Amino acid sequence: MSTEALATAVGSAAIVLFAGGALVLAPYLQLEHIEPSPGLRPYTPEEAMGRGVYVSEGCVYCHSQQPRDPAQAPDDQRGWGRPSVPGDYAYDYPHQLGTMRTGPDLFNVGARLPSADWHYLHLYQPRAVSPVSVMPSYAYLFDHVDTVRPGDLVVKIPPEVQREPGIVVATPEAQALVRYLLRLDHTAPVLTASQEEQP
Amino acid sequence: MNGTIAWLFAVTFVIGAVGLLGLVAAIARRQFGAGGAHVPFLDHEEGWAEDPVATPRLQRVLGATPRSPDPAELRDRDACDRSSRGPVLAFVLSAVAWLAVGSIFGLVVSLKFQYPDWLTDQAWTTFGRLRPLHLDTVAYGWLSMAGMGVALWLLPRLLRTPLRGGRWATAGALFWNIGMLLGTGALASGWTDGLEWLEYPWQIDGFFVIGGSLAAVPMFLTLPHRKVDHLYVSALYIIGALVWFPILFVVANIPNLHFGVEHALVNWWFAHNVLGLWFTPLGLAAAYYLIPKIVGRPIYSYQLSLLGFWSLALFYSQVGVHHLIGGPVPGWVVTLSIVTSVSMVIPVFAVAVNHHLTVLGRFRALRHSPVLRFIVLGAMLYTAASFQGSMESLRSVNTLTHFTHYTVAHAHLGAYGFASIVFFGAIYFLMPRVTGVEWPWRPLVDVHFALIAVGFFVYFTTLTIGGLLQGQAMLDASRPFTDSVSAAAPWLWGRTAGGLLMTLGHLVFAVHVGALALRAARAPALSLTEEMT
User: Fold this and answer.
1) pLDDT tens figures, B407-445
2) Hey, what CATH class is A45-189 in?
3) Does ipTM surpass 0.90 in this model?
């Protein structure tokens, strides 16, 4: 390989590694010792399973989990919560910050909408709760049965929105997902970036 | 800790600035790059239009030329084209197939905004599954494979020597396609790494690493045999792209290394670099080669193109975190990305001057060359997408446009308006050259262009307006959140209509490419011996 080609290859690699140092390695070093936010506990196995459902159903493509500072946008006035800080995400892998708000931010949805019944109905048919919603129906996370067996979680779905006849029962996936959604509550106060800057 | 980072930055910034100033000085003293502008041309070829799809009148509008190119050199170039036939066909045909599949995914996804209850009985047909399938199919199946195919065709032409080791790249296309098939199946079944642009499970990513590495082998084998004094700027972009992408892809996909907010930083550093350091250099490599070839004159300022390459490398590699403005990430990282995003006007200006001023005064050529139409439209949209991106990174603008369809429209302006449209043009140029077969139905090229040009115009304008209205509603605390949904809703019909036209255009393109490939396979006299070692 000629000098010119070699210089191009090596120079290009050096530049991108430098950029990686700036945008990835330096924040890595800065953030690796961040403590979990006060009151934040690790996910229970069921919550973790619910988070897995959230990830594999692609909720992140319409819902963010990063409320902005009141100085920038009225996220707090919508009930989405205080601006998030790195410690809030201590147990999150993969991250689900999201960059789209076709639907609302969900970082504090558990505090804003604490009713499991509401979430089951909303997941089954979003338009039964919010007529203009464009969210898909997640009826496939529910079973339609003739008889209830012990341990089944029956959810109340109005007959006019029910997809199939029968009694509607939440699958373990739906139950776990709702557990995870209810757990999304980061209302405990922390020192946020804009407060730190104030004298 | 912050002090150390500040010093690190001060030092690296100074090194970067000194490096660029050194480049400028070298260019000013003509120590660097002089003469490179003529590399695409054979002896006495300047003034001649090379365009296998143009009407014969193209040469007339460009003016008469005194002497013809040397026949021996033309034969050598034919040999270069035929030498890349196998791997180029493997990549291009796969890319076009993935384009058709990915477009249909995209169209269905768009229709779901109008019919949210349509196709929701099974998990794999829901929005949350098809949305990443669309992105990854067009990004890794179409754009990446088309880009690699175009690069493998360009390399022997740029180095004026037959491609060596083409079979390695053909094997690479096979591995890449296996990765695509497995990845598509994984995402459909809900198995995902869960990060936008990085969805394919890391267990499958190895196929892309192997496939991409094999595709780069011919470049390293052919470079030592080059018969040109200067590396043309397109070759620099190809070398850069093939060095950058593997680094980015491996770093971002390492499992269980990244965490929380840092994971988001890696995610967007990678995602923007897929556009900036992978699709963009491959698209620019094609445009920098094809514009001069078709209008028959060298680019406006060759030295400026070198400045454009190195400043693109320096700035584009750091813009990614502008996707997290207002997010819970260290403020200095966001600021750094905003600064570099705005600095992108430098490389973009360099490219814009070269692409637009080279065509200036030759606009009549557009009427006779469909390829030039694609490339010039793509180049114009590159300039537009880049300036729009710089603006969008400003905090005030970003506050309105972040989290809305506006960003989706912008992403398509870069990845579709620029990269895809340039690759369309390049594929129309290269397929007759590598196969020796003409396009079966030339008017279909015009049909394809009309469908995607009108379709994309409708797509972009309606989605941009819808996104702005959505953002405006979201920022107004006195309006309920659902207002942001209803405000965008009518404009999303526009996206579906535009997307439908684009998809039809892609199907026309795919049928045409398929027909040409069939003819090539049935024409043994034209399928010359593959000169691969």
Assistant:
1) 999 999 999 999 999 999 999 999 999 999 999 999 999
2) mainly alpha
3) yes
